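[recover] target loaded
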């Protein structure tokens, strides 16, 4: 049952040294490409990466997370308008997909739906997976590594393998927080905070000076000194660092190697996309 699989599903970073058979990978992929897509166009491609050197480089490009190298296979799901463009050259039609922002959005959705279909199918077969989004910080390097032509860009990577242990399910909000009837329904501050604290009820991170300073520096760079001082006072008064203070202030922070908005626009242009220029 899919519902039972999802109850136990968790991101896996610790894999056995066990090869996944080509037959099983093909079975997963054959199921994944049957997933729904906008217009039925399937504007995505999947790069199956088993080469040791390429897996090592992918790990380096993704914050040096070396479990990516140790996993037997990684699958890079890409938005792909190259295939449809080539068909249009052979059998002309008034198609302008790469130059419309809506289609960039839809293509990313299509690739992600395909990835999720594969992950759920893999769970059913005793495999475990993890989504890796860090490739979006190094689109040029990862595209070169994988030999991606014009009109093809990485969207998300999935790493697959047999787990060494069952792992731990991460906390999730319940449907009363995430589901709205007919229109969006704002929660009161008290109810929202209660739901947030319930989700992270096992979070017990103290507030050492080193982490406080890290959160302060991130907040100051983002929103100025007054806001940074507000964050510091909150951490010191509670003698703890909240989940969001840690994740957004210490972990998911900008790095000098990350692409800027200007970098993304330049990259998209080199890949043949013109949606950013408008009509």
């Amino acid at each position: 049952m899919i519902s039972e699989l999802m109850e136990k599903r968790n991101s896996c970073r610790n894999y056995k040294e066990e090869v996944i058979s080509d037959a099983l990978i093909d079975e997963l992929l054959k199921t994944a490409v049957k997933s729904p897509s906008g217009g039925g166009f399937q504007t995505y491609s999947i790069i199956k990466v088993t080469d040791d050197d390429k897996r090592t480089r992918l790990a380096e490009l993704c914050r040096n997370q070396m479990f990516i190298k140790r996993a037997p296979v990684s699958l890079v799901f890409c938005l792909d308008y190259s295939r449809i463009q080539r068909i249009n050259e052979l059998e002309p039609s008034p198609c302008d997909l790469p130059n419309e922002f809506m289609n960039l959005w839809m293509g990313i959705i299509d690739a992600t739906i395909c990835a999720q279909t594969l992950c759920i199918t893999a769970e059913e077969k005793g495999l475990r997976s993890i989504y890796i989004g860090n490739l979006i910080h190094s689109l040029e390097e990862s595209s070169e590594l994988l030999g991606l032509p014009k009109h093809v860009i990485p969207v998300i990577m999935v790493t697959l393998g047999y787990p060494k242990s069952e792992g731990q399910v991460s906390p999730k909000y319940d449907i009363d927080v995430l589901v709205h009837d007919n229109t969006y329904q704002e929660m009161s501050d008290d109810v929202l905070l209660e739901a947030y604290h319930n989700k992270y009820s096992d979070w017990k991170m103290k507030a050492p000076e080193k982490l406080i300073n890290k959160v302060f520096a991130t907040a100051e760079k983002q929103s100025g000194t007054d806001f940074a001082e507000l964050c510091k006072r909150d951490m010191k008064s509670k003698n703890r660092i909240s989940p969001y203070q840690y994740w957004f202030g210490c972990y998911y922070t900008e790095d000098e190697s990350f692409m800027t908005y200007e970098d993304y626009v330049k990259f998209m242009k080199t890949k043949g996309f013109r949606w950013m220029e408008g009509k």
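[recover] notes: The two ends are 47 Å apart (CA to CA).
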